[in-house]
Amino acid sequence: MLQVLKKRMATNGLDLPGFARELVQKWSDGSIKLYVIFRSLHYRNKNHQLFMDGAYIPLMSEGDHKEHVCAYARKGEGKVVLVVVPRFLMHLIQMDEMPFGKKTWGDSWLVIPPEVYAMRFNNIFTDETIELVERDGKPALALEQVFANFPVAMLEGKVEVL
Q1: Contact by Cβ (8 Å): 135, 53
Q2: Which range marks the domain in which residue 145 is found?
């Protein structure tokens, strides 16, 4: 099944957001779970010191649906990775909807504390770049962008000094 998934990824080429959405639409075949495991473990393998010795930093969310997200950061070696997952999605979406974008996430965001500050983050599942914004005077990432094409996120950033 993993070989088939890798072949599908290669065939899809540079359209990783489209591939990610396709996985969500065909969730019942189990490929989405395998994809998350494969990409996460591959990233962890390449960045094992970050996960072994990096600081664990819980992240706060704010806005309309702040109680529907759980997130933390790992920081070390000049890198930071944010892990962001939704919770209680059935309270946010209709049965036939996908949990993406502004319709689902409204005006909700992830607060980025100074110790994990980066101007932009790259989503390892979709290869999308998410730019830092300001909300209530704090650096933040809009959840509508974090979850624009995939229902979970691992966001890599380069730590910058404020």
Answers
A1: no
A2: 2-158
